[in-house]
Design brief:
This protein is mainly alpha-helical. Helix content is 76%, strand content 1%.
Length: 625
């Protein structure tokens, strides 16, 4: 009896739990389904989702059926649009015509439905009916700019671009909204591919509203991105050049032509326009300075130097004077570095320019880059090490940002190392490391510090510091650190006593100090026996780089070639390939050989850091052909 009573209690408890749960589930069902013959009736949200799904899957028949039901139940704009588009896709033009007329009874003043009906007539081949509707729209334009744009946009969306253009022109002639519609006309012409008239419309807008220059530049820039065959660029250049020549006193034309020249990297034209703007409209140094800085960043140092020199020849109180001196000096240095014929006289002349700049501007936060470049020339080109050190020591004590001070300390450390004061240099490199943690400059300082330990024969200590740099954010620093670390490791494995590695370290130290005769003497002592494979590879590479510095390009090229042909698996094989290609391109004028070497590098060493520049140079050489 007790067992029966206990079972009854358990049964009642279960019923109490199940029934409320069932009630909750029933209340929370997202969709209610009712049986109606063999079909299921879904609530509107679910039917709408299903209809949209059919539509985007391209099943327009089922989409039209569902949207018809939804539209007849509720005349929503969304349902109308999808239903209309489904019918058009099904080519059910009669049904679409009925739908438009039904919608027009509800909203007779909405031009969208009028244009939809006109479009259906055009699809049915009822051109006269379609044109009649459109002509009436064009003739009876509302005196409201927003409504005019709405009509034109709807016409354009249905492919009636000529009608849209007519709307804008009529609205402009009637001065509707006191607005000229040039930008809209330009957009319509762009839609048709009539870029000639599109540019005319944009220039008309500039004539009527000179404050729209940036907006017009943005429109043109978007087009130039898609200008694969350069036809658009040529068309626009002809138009704006003609305008600028016809009206030389129009600053907007000159600015637009300058901007266009910068976009197409025609820096000579850009500078010509910038100078013209400054001369005609007075004190427009900003334009010239802008061209100079952009040309410099694109490695067009001749144009950059001309731009900065122009500003220097103007009055010295212009706001760009100090920056222009820096830009001019930097550009001249880059030109000298690029010129294989630069000699001691070249650097002596640049020393005069830098010295004159410091005399005129003084040593301050605004001239630290001039100080750095001048010290570099004095030490590394003219052997005026003491003067270079004094110059940098004067600059370092000036209050400035931590990073600016670190740059000067790095330069001073390099000069101290160049002078043989290695441990003084090491101290400065360490200061930069600690001042700028996790900064690319700090990584560079750590690498140069490790290199000093390598020069002085502290190989294990150098390798430990180099291994830390393998994960540096700078790819080039990480690569240099990895190469030197592997070189130390491999050489010590090949010669456990470290005799050969000490010869290389001494040679590298003398190379850094530009004592190339001493470098070659130490390299000549390196054994190239069969057991010293790695030593043989690096001996070739280092000798090649020295002969390149000595401008003995044929010898350098032969040594680089020997390296990548005899030791294709060498860690320096891709370097040798790239530098051989560069020598042939720049110094031996053999562009055909250079091109084949760039291609060889891309194919055989796709992971090399030289692959990207090789691809760029290969394309340029073959485009020039």
């Amino acid at each position: 009896m007790l067992i029966i009573r206990r079972n009854i209690v358990l049964l009642l408890l279960l019923v109490g739990i199940i029934l409320p749960s069932a009630r909750i589930v029933a209340q929370n069902k997202p969709v209610s389904i009712q049986q109606n013959g063999s079909s299921l009736q879904l609530k509107t949200p679910s039917r709408e989702n299903l209809a949209r799904s059919y539509y985007y899957k391209g099943n327009y028949e089922k989409a039209a059926q569902l949207y018809s039901e939804l539209y007849n139940k509720e005349k929503r704009y969304l349902f109308y649009t999808y239903y209309y588009n489904s019918l058009v896709n099904l080519k059910s033009y009669k049904e679409a015509e009925k739908l438009c007329k039904k919608q027009l009874k509800i909203s007779s003043h909405n031009v969208r439905y009028v244009i939809d009906l006109s479009y259906i007539y055009s699809l049915e081949g009822l051109t006269k009916k379609s044109n009649r509707i459109i002509n009436k729209l064009v003739e009876d334009l509302p005196n409201n700019r927003n409504l005019v744009v709405n009509i034109a946009n709807n016409l354009q969306s249905k492919g009636f671009v000529d009608a849209a253009l007519e709307v804008y022109k009529r609205a402009r002639n009637n001065n509707i909204g006191n607005y000229r519609y040039n930008m809209e006309i330009a957009s319509a012409y762009r839609y048709t591919g009539n870029y000639d008239k599109m540019f005319d419309a944009l220039i008309n807008q500039l004539d009527e509203n000179r404050n729209d220059l940036k907006r017009i530049e943005s429109n043109i820039q978007n087009l130039l991105v898609m200008d694969v065959d350069n036809n658009l660029s040529k068309t626009f250049k002809e138009k704006i050049l003609t305008k600028a020549q016809a009206d030389p006193n129009n600053m907007q034309y000159a600015e637009l032509l300058m901007w266009y020249s910068l976009q197409t990297k025609d820096f000579t034209m850009a500078l010509r326009q910038a100078k013209s703007i400054d001369r005609r409209f007075r004190d427009k140094e900003e334009s010239v300075y802008q061209v100079g800085t952009i040309a410099y960043s694109n490695r067009k140092y001749k144009v950059a130097s001309e731009a900065f020199e122009y500003l220097l020849k103007k009055k010295s109180d212009n706001s760009y004077y100090a920056d222009s001196y820096d830009g001019y000096f930097s550009s001249k240095i880059k030109l000298a570095e690029e010129n294989p014929n630069s000699d001691a006289d070249t650097w002596a002349e640049l020393n005069k320019i830098g010295t004159h700049a410091i005399e005129k501007l003084g040593i301050n936060r605004g001239t630290t880059n001039i100080v750095k470049n001048l010290a570099d020339i004095k030490a590394f080109k003219l052997n005026q090490n003491s003067e270079a050190e004094n110059l940098l020591n004067q600059a370092i004590i000036i209050p400035m940002s931590v990073e600016s001070k670190a740059v000067l300390k790095m330069e001073l450390a390099d000069i101290l190392a160049f002078s043989g004061k290695f441990w003084d240099a090491s101290l400065l490199y360490s200061q930069v490391e600690h001042a700028l943690k996790n900064n690319p400059l700090a990584y560079e300082a750590k690498f140069r510090n490790a290199r000093i330990f390598y020069y002085k024969g502290e190989f294990e200590w150098a390798k430990t510091r180099l291994d830390i740099l393998k994960g540096a954010t700078s790819k080039f620093i990480a690569n240099d650190a990895l190469e030197l670390s592997l070189f130390i490791k491999d050489m010590l494995e090949e010669d456990t006593l470290g005799f050969t590695l000490r010869l290389f370290a001494a040679a590298d130290q003398y190379a850094f100090q530009q004592k190339y005769d001493s470098t070659l003497i130490f390299l000549s002592k390196v054994s190239t026996s069969v057991s010293n494979t790695i030593a043989s590879e690096f001996k070739l590479y280092k000798e090649a780089s020295i002969y390149e510095k000595l401008k003995k390009y044929n010898t350098a090229d032969s040594l680089y070639t020997a390296l990548f042909t005899q030791f294709p698996q060498s860690i320096k094989a891709d370097n040798a390939l790239f530098y051989s290609a560069e020598i042939n391109r720049k110094n031996l004028s053999d562009t055909q050989k250079a091109s084949s070497l760039y291609l060889k590098l891309m194919k055989e060493y796709p992971e090399s850091i030289f692959t990207t520049p090789s691809r760029t140079l290969y394309r340029k050489l073959n485009e020039d052909k």
